[in-house]
Amino acid sequence: MLIDRPEFWASGVIFGSPHSGRIYPEWFLEGTRLPAETLRSSEDAFVDQLIACAPSFGAVTIRAQVPRAIVDLNRAPDEIDPLVVRGVPRHPLNQRTLAGLGVIPRVVSQGRTILERPIDRTEAERRIDAYWRPYHLALAALIAEARARFGQAILIDMHSMPHDALNHLHGQRPDMVLGNRHGLSASARVSDAIIAAVEAEGWRIRRNSPFAGAYICSAYGRPGHNVHVVQLEIDRSLYMDEKTITPNDRFADVASRIGRVIRTLAVLDAGGRAGPAVAAE
């Protein structure tokens, strides 16, 4: 993964992008039935670029390089699909894993199967040890450092969603969805401040529906201990062509507006105020 730090960390705010990795090694491509352009449909393509400005405003970024099709960093390491990994027990599975979206995904978008055949458990463990654990060790260390220095940590976990993912919603379609596990992973004040920053740029944002936040929110969000984690999903069609996975003609404008949101949030404190937190003694 890549971690970029500002010259002066302003307020213990971290921007994460666990699904924007796009380095597909040959060993993986040889074992898949899908071409690389189809595999890329599972990426949060270009989200890492959209948050790259954060250090210039005083926030830290952590960005994955491993593709989600190889290992999903926003899943628990035990969310293992027995249809993907041989030799694992068929214990009760959550809905994500049943849908083929466990820590070793079975499918990319539109239910297209990734692997030619199931992999051995040793290969699944190798991927988790090589990619999943280093990312989460680094993320946990950043959160702990933020709490030690500022008395708070605010992780804004950035994702993108297919435009079609919102087709079933009634009423006005949002441009973004904020997930905070219905208040379990971040306080209302922090969540409200993030929503206000997004709305100030003219975007519509919805809370917790259809995405309330996945593993990273549930594993790290502890608002009672001043650790606030939100998942922020952006409609991909705002800034990219979803068929060709290329930036569209609005990319520069969206990036500029996202930059202004990041500039506001980079100095956010746990009370929902924009201003550098007081460093802990």
Rounded to an integer in angstroms, the radius of gyration calculated over CA atoms is 18 Å
Number of helix segments?
8
H and E string: EEHHHEHEEHEEHEHEEEH
Question: Portion of residues in helices?
Answer: 25-40%
Indicate the structural class: alpha/beta
Strand order of the largest sheet: 1-3-2-6-9-7-8
First and last CA, distance: 30 Å
Percent of residues in β-strands: 15-25%
Number of strands: 11
Largest sheet properties:
7 strands, mixed
Give average pLDDT, whole number: 93
What form results from the Cα inertia axes?
globular
* Regions with little confidence, pLDDT below 50 for 5+ residues: none
Can you give a write-up of this model?
With 281 residues, the protein is of the alpha/beta class. It has eight helices and eleven strands. It has helices at 26-29, 36-39, 47-50, 95-98, 121-150, 188-199, 215-220, 251-265; strands at residues 2-4, 13-17, 60-63, 107-108, 112-113, 153-161, 176-179, 205-207, 227-235, 240-241, 246-247. Strands 1-3-2-6-9-7-8 form a seven-stranded mixed beta sheet. Helix 6 (188-199) packs antiparallel against helix 8. It is globular. The mean pLDDT is 93.
Key features of this structure:
single chain, alpha/beta, 281 residues, seven-stranded mixed β-sheet
Short note summarizing the structure:
This protein is of the alpha/beta class. 28% of the residues lie in helices and 16% in strands.
SSE topology:
Blueprint: E1 2-4, E2 13-17, H1 26-29, H2 36-39, H3 47-50, E3 60-63, H4 95-98, E4 107-108, E5 112-113, H5 121-150, E6 153-161, E7 176-179, H6 188-199, E8 205-207, H7 215-220, E9 227-235, E10 240-241, E11 246-247, H8 251-265
Helix pairs in contact: 6-8
